[in-house]
C-alpha cells in the first residue's frame, strides 16, 4: 500500500496533469507564436526547429507540484523542511529560467537575461537554499558541514568546516548551469532527468534513504517528465525552455544534498559535468591556439556534427547517466 500511495499514484498524477496541460497549451503557444528562436551559431540543420513552442518545463513542473500537493492533502502530511528546501531551490531556479524565457519571448531579446544577471540570481538562490538547510535541516548526529564519503579513501565522513558553504555554492550553481547547457537537442535533458528521478525514487523507497516526501516529489516529476517526453522526442513539438532546464538542475542537486549525498553529485550529474567541461575546454583551447578542440560545444553538438542522430545521442547519454546512477546506487547500498 505504501508503494501505491508514495510511488504509483503521484507518478500517475504527475503524468495526467502534465499531459493534459501540454495537450491543451502546445496549440495555444504555437498560435501565439511563442516559439524558439534558433541562434546562428548553432547547427544549421536546427533551423527547422525554429518556432517550436517553449515553456514546456512549466507544465511538467506544474504536474509534479500538483501530484505532491494532492498527496499531502490525501495523507494529511505537512511538508517537512528537507522537501521544502528542495522546493525552494527548484522553484527559484525555475523562476530565474522563466524570467529568461519571458525576456526572450516577449521582449524579443534572443539571449534573454545577461550572463551576469543570471549568475547573480543563481548565486543568491543557492545561497538562500544553503542558509535554509543550515538552520532548518540539520544532519542528524553529524556535523552539518561534513560530507558523507561512502567509504572513499576509507573515510565515513569528511569535515569541511566553513569551506563547505563556498564549495557547495559554486558547485551547485555550476551544475544547475550544466543542466541548462545539456538541453540542446530533442529529448536529451528530459531523458537524463527522468533517470535521475527514477534513481531518487529507488534510493528513497528501496533503500530507505531520505524521507517519503523526497520520493513523492521524484515520483510526481517522473510522471511529469514522461508526459513531456511524449511531446519532446525528435521531432519535438515543444521545448522545456530555461524554465524547465534550470528547474531540473535545481531539483536534482537539491535532492542529492537532502539525501546527505553531496559527493554523489559527481556520478549522478556526470553527463551534465561533461557538457559543462566541454564548453570550458573549447573556450580555453580556442583562446590558446585559435583552434577548436571539439567540432562544437557543448559536447552533444560535437557528436551531432560527427554524424550521430539525435536518437543515438539521447540513448547514449541516457545510458551513461543510468550507468553512473547505478554506481551511485551501489555506493548507497555499501556506504
Please count the helical segments: 12
Instruction: Name the overall outline.
Output: globular
Unreliable segments (pLDDT under 50, ≥5 consecutive)?
none
Q: How many structural domains? A: 1
Structural class of the secondary elements? mainly alpha
Distance between the termini: 29 Å
Please compute the radius of gyration using only Cα atoms. 19 Å
Task: List how many beta strands DSSP finds.
Answer: 2
Instruction: Give the proportion of residues in helices.
Output: 55-70%
The amount of beta strand, in percent, is under 5%
Order of helices and strands: HHHHEEHHHHHHHH
Strand order of the largest sheet: 1-2
Task: Look at the structure and give the mean pLDDT.
Answer: 92
Main sheet attributes: strand count, strand direction, barrel closure: 2 strands, antiparallel
What does this entry look like structurally?
- The protein has 335 residues and is mainly α.
- The chain has one domain (2-334).
- 69% of the residues lie in helices and 2% in strands.
- It has helices spanning 2-31, 56-75, 81-106, 115-136, 164-182, 188-206, 212-232, 241-258, 265-268, 270-289, 299-305, 310-334, and strands spanning 146-148, 157-159.
- It has a two-stranded antiparallel ribbon.
- The longest helix is centred in the first third of the chain and has 30 residues, at 2-31.
- It is globular.
- The chain starts with a helix and ends with a helix.
